[in-house]
Amino acid sequence: MATIFVFLVIIIAFIQEGFVLVKLWNWFALPLFPTLPTLNIPQAIGISILVGFLTHQYIELPELESRYDKIRRTVTILIKPWIVLLFGYVVSRWL
Hints:
Helices cover about 80% and strands about 0% of the residues. The protein is an all-alpha fold.
């Protein structure tokens, strides 16, 4: 059951990151470079995976994690894209 939950969180995180990347792309990249193509969510997910692969951010986790730490890490993974989108939206209104 825990494996299915982790798999679902990963899928949801990829979709969220793709959605946020599409919005940020439309707000910031396209106005600066109008000849760039628009992105759809699958393309944005692919770019996100590629950048994550090339920049590989490794976070060392303790061997024995408490239940609270697992919940906190999961919530952080699911909330972070929306916080980035909020800040991106605020900055895009200043342009």
